[in-house]
Design goal:
Blueprint: E1 2-5, H1 10-21, E2 27-30, H2 41-46, E3 54-56, E4 62-64, H3 66-74, H4 84-114, H5 124-141, H6 154-163, H7 177-190
Parallel strand pairs: 1-2
Antiparallel strand pairs: 1-3, 3-4
Helix pairs in contact: 1-3, 1-6, 4-5, 4-6, 5-7, 6-7
Length: 193
């Protein structure tokens, strides 16, 4: 299996973390989006959307979209709850992550860290929505060790990717102590350094 990803991207890292956690072997192919490496004809043949990550399976089939990839990789593992309700809750978090968390927390990080924009110049809506996403997680994690039940799931893998580096976009986890403790638990469980 080959993973085409940019190691600066949380969406790419969650794929490698899932594969590592599950003991799946793969070849990482660094794909620098800032240099246009996801826009070459060869890359676009694998993923016409021109986005990383892309996984090319051993049989040559390609797959894109980080949450679809981690769902595929984790099929039948402990990262996907067996109980139908808990599995649906995990999916709820995965959908929420791509719609209500990543577009704000990750975008703020990208603008500050990689485009050099001062935090004070971030769009107010971006900051407000990012803070709301972290507050939503804080509420969910106040009395729970993980987002779904009492064990690590793909919901945690997906959401830790950008939450753990949210400070790079001007967000402080000191305002969200339950989230901060959760990040440490998930990093330990996934052996993230």
């Amino acid at each position: 299996m080959k993973i085409y990803g940019d190691s600066k991207s949380g969406n790419c890292l969650k794929v490698s973390w899932t594969a590592d956690f599950l003991g799946r072997s793969y070849e990482w192919i660094e794909t620098d989006i800032m240099q246009g490496e996801s826009r070459t004809p060869d890359f676009l043949a694998m993923n016409p959307a021109g986005q990383v990550p892309v996984v090319v399976l051993d049989d040559g089939r390609a797959m894109a979209q980080s949450n679809a990839i981690i769902l595929y990789l984790a099929e039948g593992s402990s990262l996907i709850p067996k109980d139908a309700y808990d599995r649906a809750r995990m999916l709820e978090w995965l959908f929420w992550e791509q719609y209500s968390h990543e577009p704000y927390v990750a975008v703020a990080r990208f603008q500050v860290r990689y485009l050099g924009k001062p935090v004070e110049e971030l769009e107010a809506r971006l900051v407000e929505r990012g803070g709301s996403a972290l507050a939503r997680m804080e509420l969910a994690l106040k009395d729970a060790p993980f987002l779904v039940g009492d064990q690590l799931s793909l919901a945690d893998v997906a959401l830790v990717a950008y939450t753990r580096v949210c400070h790079e976009g001007g967000f402080s986890l000191d305002l969200y102590p339950a989230v901060k403790a959760w990040v440490a638990r998930v990093e330990q469980a996934l052996n993230i350094r």
